[in-house]
Every structure is written in C-alpha cells, then in structure tokens.
Amino acid sequence: MSRKRWEAETYHSKDFDWDKLREEVVTQLEEAQRDSEAWDRFHARHSTGKFFKERRYLLKEFPELASCEDNSKVLEVGCGNGSTALPILCGREGIILYACDCSYEALERTKEIITASTSISAIHRFHPFLCDFSTTGFPSWLASNTCLESSFNRHSLGSLEAYAGANSDEAKSCIGGVDFVTLIFTLSALPLDRMPKAIKECFDILKPGGMLLFRDYGIYDMTMLRFDPQRRIGYREYLRSDGTRSYFFCLDTVRSLTSAAGFIEVELEYCCINAVNRRKGKTMKRVFVHGKFQKPSLN
C-alpha cells in the first residue's frame, strides 16, 4: 500500500470534542422543554378554546382533503386546540385523523372540543398523541409496517392509546405512513434551526405521492409589524412575552426548506387578506404563506 493511500485512510477519533457536543445536545433539549412549557401555559390560559377560530376555509384552500379516498390518513402537526382538526373531521367523513402537539394542555383542549362538537363517528376517527416532532421526530409506528419493540415505541403507543378512545385497536397498529400532513401555523412556532429537521420528518412520514399542506405567517403580516423591536431574536423571528415564538416566512425560505427535504413544489404563494374588525372599524392586512408540496411517487 502506498504512503499516499495510507494517509487517505487514516482513522480519526478526535474530530470533535465530546463535552462540547453534550453541551449542545443538552441546550437543544432544554430549549425544546421551555418551548413545550410555554405552550402549555398558553393553552391553559386559553382553555375555553375561544382564542382560535375554527378554520372552516381549510377544505376550500386544500380541496385534496375534501376529495380524498375513504380511509385516507391525515396527520395534523401542532394541533393546538383543534381548530384545524375539527373542520377536517366534520368536512370529510372518510378521513382518519392523527393529531400531535408538544403540549399536553393543547391535546386536552383538542380532545374536549372534538368530543363536544362532533359525532361519534368523528371521535372514533380521531387519534391525538403527544410529540415534539422537531426534536424527537415522529414515533415509528406512524411510518413502519412493523412496530419495533423498544421503550420509545411502547411509550409512544401508550400516549396514543391514552387519547384514542374506542377505536384503540387501530390506534395501536402501525399505519404505514400517512396520505397528508397538515402543517398549519406550526412551523413558525419553532426555532429557525429546527425547521429543516421538522420538514424532513414530515417528508419521511408521508407515503410516496403524499402531500404536505402548508399555511403560516408571511413577511409583513400585521402581527409582524406590531411586534416591539426588542422582541426580535433573529431574522424575522420574534419571542413573545409568554415565551412562545413566531417566525414570518418569505416564499424563498419555504421553498428552500421543502426542496431540501425532497418535496416537489405544487403550489406556493402569498395569501393577502383584509381582515375587518367591525367592532373597532379597522381593517387588518394579514399575510400568510400558502403551499402544497408532494413527496415523489415510486416509479
């Protein structure tokens, strides 16, 4: 073996410092825990569910949900108090809806609202579970055809079973991926550096040909312009007084995140809406980013 080839194959064991890596990982986990606790407090304060209005426009903006086949599986990521889950369940009888959130309080509110507002059929088609997808990823039973017996999977299935209700047999089985992922005003609540992993998790959990349905805050939205400059913690990234975050997207940022994950862009545009507050006689200029992205089909 030549000296040049030997040098190219030299073994490395000190490429980075372990203590520094540990510090970075612990910092990320502590940050994720603070985010979850902030959203727990947020949903506890707004426990009546009146803070968020039911998003009845969803099936019009995303007609793929209204026309999908019976027993299509939808994963609602960051379900909050159920303002997205509720119109999907009510608007399309055949959909099976899985919904996750990093906040236990949010899941409790969602469960209460779905139970009070929908039919027995919808309740049986609704499966919420606790998950911070941007740090730990989605549980493997969402994508796997065969569940691996591990402590993580048992914990994940237990969390799902606790919320699943009468249809727990289906909830406990591996579902082999989902047909749609809805990411509605969720990505903006994450730190910018966790967004690439979050989008990649959505890509991995979809079946080939499945779609990511996206809607979030756009740059120059009214709420962005109202933020105190001192609340700015990054480029278009703000931290509210309650510890929750908000990021405002441009089209290029969304395009970059989704293409890097492997998605094919189907639609991507700004939605510019005049929201009228009749009581105060004010018109509010809202800017949202609307997008549809598809996972390539198998050839």
Question: How would you sum up this structure, described in words?
Answer:
- There is one protein chain.
- By secondary structure, the chain is of the alpha/beta class.
- It has one domain: 3-Layer(aba) Sandwich (Rossmann fold).
- The protein contains twelve helices and ten strands.
- It has a seven-stranded mixed sheet.
- A hairpin with a 5-residue loop joins strand 7 (237-239) and strand 8 (245-247).
- Helix 2 (18-45) runs parallel beside helix 6 and helix 10 packs across helix 12.
- It starts with a helix and ends in a 5-residue tail after the last strand.
- Mean pLDDT is 80; it is low at 148-172.
Q: Which oligomeric form is depicted?
A: single chain
Count of all domains: 1
* Strand ordering within the main sheet: 3-2-1-4-5-10-9
How far apart are the termini?
43 Å
Number of helices: 12
**CATH architecture level-2 label:** 3-Layer(aba) Sandwich
Mean pLDDT: 80
Order of helices and strands: HHHHEHEHHEHHEHEHEEEHEE
CATH homologous superfamily? Answer: Vaccinia Virus protein VP39
CATH class: Alpha Beta
Sum up the overall morphology in one term: globular
Structural class: alpha/beta
β-strand amount: 15-25%
Report the C-alpha radius of gyration, rounded.
Answer: 21 Å
Low-confidence stretches: 148-172
Would you tell me which CATH topology applies?
A: Rossmann fold
Task: Please bin the fraction of helical residues.
Answer: 25-40%
Protein name: tRNA N(3)-methylcytidine methyltransferase
Function: S-adenosyl-L-methionine-dependent methyltransferase.
GO biological process, one term: methylation
InterPro entries: METTL2/6/8-like (IPR026113), SAM-dependent_MTases_sf (IPR029063)
